[in-house]
Amino acid sequence: MPKHVLLIDDEDDIREITALSLEKVAGWHVSSANSGPAGIELAKSVRPDVILLDVMMPEQDGPTTLQLLQNDASTSRIPVIFLTAKVQSRELERLQEMGSVGVLAKPFDPLALASEIRRILGW
Amino acid sequence: VPQTRIVEKTALTGFVTVLALLGLVGVVTQRTILGLIDDNRWVAHTHVVLETFQRLSYQISQAEAAARGYVLTGDPRFEAQYKAAKISIPDLVSELRNQTADNPIEQARIPALQEVIGERLQVLENSVQIRRTQGLAAVLAIKNSRGPYLSSEITEQMELLRGEENRLLAARNLKAQQSSRRAFAVLLISVVLAMTAVAASVFLIFRDLRRRREVDRMKSEFVSVVSHELRTPLTSLRGSLGLLGSGLIAATTEKGKRMLEIAVDNTDRLIRLINDILDVEKLDSGGIQMNRKLCSGGELIKQAADAMRSMAHTHNITLQTSETDALISADPDRVVQCLTNLISNAIKFSDGGGIVTVRAVSGGGELRFEVSDRGRGIPAAYQTSIFERFHQVDASDSRKKGGTGLGLAISRSIVRQHGGRIWVESQLGKGSTFFFTIPLTGAESGADSQPTASDGSNAFGLQRERHAETRLVD
After folding, report:
1. Which residues of chain B have a CB within 8 Å of the CB of A85?
2. SS3 of B221, please?
3. B66-72: which pairs have CB atoms within 8 A and are 24 or more residues apart?
4. What stretches of B357-427 show up as alpha helix (H) in DSSP?
5. Looking at chain B, which residue has its C-alpha nearest residue A88?
6. Cβ contacts (< 8 Å) between B237 and chain A: which residues?
7. Most A CBs within 10 Å, among B217, B224, B225, B236, to test the A interface
8. Which of B235, B248, B262 minimises the CB distance to A107?
9. Measured between CB atoms, which of A10, A86, A110 is closest to B243?
10. Rama region for A4: left / alpha / beta (φ>0; ψ in -120 to 50; rest)
11. How far is CA B19 from CA B8, B25, B188, B189, B195, in A?
12. pLDDT value at position A48?
């Protein structure tokens, strides 16, 4: 059974490329949402194996979305990996401490993304 | 580095001011205290003069008493006493003359006193001589009425001089008291001034340091945001090219073509972003000189509108401009850049079929450009912050609308470098009007180049009526 990934990012191009890369390279199934609230709704219905969450999004940013996911019993056990263009080490540490299982920096290699996610999750 | 220099300059200026102030305080205090010492010296001098008067009176009385004693008794001890007193009197008179050398009034009286004393001593001497050679009876036989007269004359002259000296003493005492008070006041004021100067310096240094920290914080925030803004299109670029390059997706397929399209779009976005970042940095640091020329406001509007017409057409927006013959001294390219930024925003945030109006109104020594749309409007909370770098109302606008988040920051820098102002008035759901002003030619150095808000609006109100017939062109 292929893994199911939920991608939450407000950038259309990045969503398209990330999904394509995970589907082509790893053969995973990818669902995507363009905002935090839409992502939470989708997470509740599709119950993904992992959530890739963008940090800088308008209105509801990544950290807020993560907190809401953790506060909801139906989504609190889904591992979340931040995908961020903010790469200062202090920022990365802060994101890690928020309860995510890992942080991946943008830009990423589309061919290595799946194996990075496997490494973080121990798949 | 310039911030450090500012702090150093403030510190240096502060310390130089404090030192100069302390130096001044030192000089003033020294002068005041010297004055005080001088005043006290004069008081002491007056006491010395008064004592000399005392001694002179005493010696004259002594001479009179001894002479009288000798005449009555013939006792040679009285004669010796009389001689000793008599010899000391001229010395005391000349001592008095020296001591009152500073006072012309007293100096004028001393000869009269000297004369009457001399006469009195002569009368005494005569009595003593006659007593010695002819006996007591001969002395008693002399009917001389001048003795008592001379004594009272001496007393009177002495009183006049003593009175003058007492008047001086009172005046000098008063002056010494005033000097003491002044010295105290000067010291007090000096201490307060020096403390104020030190406090002001410390305050200024701390304020500069705080500003410096604020600038540092803003810089690092800017670098962080720029890094983020650059990485976002790079992510799409790296991703699409990576997928194509690996052969996982063939460039000739539909997906492949889409990847190429994403790569091109994001390359364009990167180019715009880099240009704008460089522009805003250079503008804010004063690295771009405004190439000022005499130009017509109407011509600048026309140029900007021409440049934006195809974008307006694509978005199905009608662009309306008005004419003005007002002349401004400005960098035409930069003012057009500012206008195209505002027009481009107005088009992006208008609904299809909408109208964007560009006009210019002169008044209050400046030309005011206005760019209006009937779009979604800007919430009041954002109406100031949108002019900051990367402060869009909605961060996703930069992607959706193709902006960089720097257009308004660039426009603000351009306007400020021309000595103008930029602001927005907006109503949610009804639209926004962006305004910016450029000083009119000849008014730049005038007092009315920066009118107050109320003056400005009155002037514009009048001007608006005059331009009522302004022709609108599509």
Report:
1. 227-228, 231-232, 235
2. helix
3. B67/B124, B67/B127, B67/B128, B70/B128, B70/B131, B71/B127, B71/B128, B71/B131, B71/B136, B71/B139, B72/B136
4. 397-400, 407-417
5. B224
6. 107
7. B236
8. B235
9. A110
10. beta
11. 16, 10, 17, 16, 12
12. 96
Residue B11 in this model has a pLDDT that exceeds 90 = no
**ipTM metric:** 0.92
| Cα gap B249→B256, rounded to integer Å | 6
Nearest Cα neighbor of B99 from B64, B59, B55 is: B55
Tell me if B255 and A20 make a contact (CB, 8 A cut-off): yes
| Among B12, B82, B89, B7, residue whose Cα is nearest residue B56 | B89
Query: Is the Cα torsion angle B415, B290, B2, A91 positive or negative in sign?
Result: positive
Whether omega for the bond prior to residue B76 falls within 30 degrees of 0, making it cis, is no
Token readout for B215 is 């600038």
Q: Do B224 and A108 touch (CB under 8 A)?
A: no
Q: What are phi and psi of B116, to 5 degrees?
A: -70, -35
Question: Residue A66's closest CA among A96, A107, A30?
Answer: A96
Within a 13 Å sphere around the CA of A104, how many CA atoms are in the beta-carbon half? 25
CB < 8 Å from A in window 370-429 of B: 394-396, 399
Contact B395 A56 (CB under 8 A): yes
For B233, counting Cβ atoms within 10 Å of its Cβ (0-12 exposed, 13-18 middle, 19+ buried), the class is buried
Q: How long is chain B?
A: 474
pLDDT per position as a tens digit, B22-76: 788 788 888 888 888 888 888 899 999 999 999 999 999 999 999 999 999 989 9
What's the pLDDT band for B83 if we cut at 50, 70, 90?
very high
Does the beta-carbon distance from A21 to B236 stay under 8 Å? Answer: no
Tokens at B411, concatenated? 């426009």
Tell if the CB–CB gap between B243 and A56 is shorter than 8 Å. Answer: no
Q: Which residue of B has its CA nearest to A12?
A: B399
Q: Is A87 on the interface with B (CB under 8 A)?
A: yes
| Buried/exposed B47-59: b ≥16 CB within 10 Å, e otherwise | eebbebbebbbeb
